[in-house]
Design goal:
By secondary structure, the protein is an alpha/beta fold. The protein has one domain: Hect, E3 ligase catalytic fold (2-Layer Sandwich). The protein has a 4-stranded mixed sheet with strand order 1-2-4-3.
């Protein structure tokens, strides 16, 4: 399962605080491309509720995977933001992602979220 960061940037939909040119958008795509297959599968399940992508990959998802900025109150510090986990709305293929301080924090928080959600389904 090969993922190209540039292709991901073009098939993901970035909204509500993010654009495909946003730093965190590029970091997300780079981090996802570097994940081992096991974690890629967990990410797919985390975001969509399904264990596999449709034929055609992310480009065939209906609705498309949408990545939006997960906000905290304006007075929250960067360290408080870096402690937040990404969240999802699987019925809409919607990923709410904080604007993390570094690629390492993004990768760590994303892996915590996908591993904790593995095998479970929760409505939020």
């Amino acid at each position: 399962m090969e993922w190209n960061p540039e292709q991901l940037l073009h098939v993901f939909k970035f909204e509500h605080g993010y654009k495909s040119s946003s730093g965190v958008a590029r970091l997300l795509c780079q981090v996802l491309a570097e994940l081992p297959v096991e974690h890629k599968r967990k990410f797919i399940s985390f975001c969509t509720g399904c264990p596999r992508l449709p034929v055609g990959g992310f480009a065939a998802l209906k609705p498309p995977l949408t990545v939006v900025k997960k906000e905290l109150p304006k007075e929250a510090s960067q360290s408080a933001l870096d402690m937040q986990l990404p969240s999802v709305m699987t019925c809409a293929n919607y990923l709410k992602l904080p604007d993390y301080a570094s690629p390492t924090v993004l990768r760590d928080r994303l892996l915590v979220a996908v591993n904790e959600a593995d095998g479970s389904f929760h409505l939020s």
